[in-house]
Request: fold
Amino acid sequence: MVMYIQLYKDNTAIGAAIWFFVALFLLLVLGWFISMLYYRSSKQMAFVISLAPFVMSGLLTIINQATKGALFDSMINFVVTAMGFSGNIPNPYIGSISMLLISVIICVFNYLLIRRAQIK
Reply:
């Protein structure tokens, strides 16, 4: 609750409950997605999946330097807007809707991964 209050300067229990439920649901769905990726992949592909965050962070850094910081600025602006911090008063419900939308998109990919998965 403290993190919610510090982020949104809001002290309502309903807003905090909704925001935390959606945030934890997003983390659950993301963990399920990563587990399904590992489950459906071979040993070589699991190695590639494990290295992908490091390679992507390096590539993003190189692209950001090539664009003179425009990439990270646009990414930060997108996250600020999606989480509801773009106005004068932060809106936690915009952040909740954004996280819920991302969760639904990841659930679609989870369904595609689990649809024809063989039991090992």
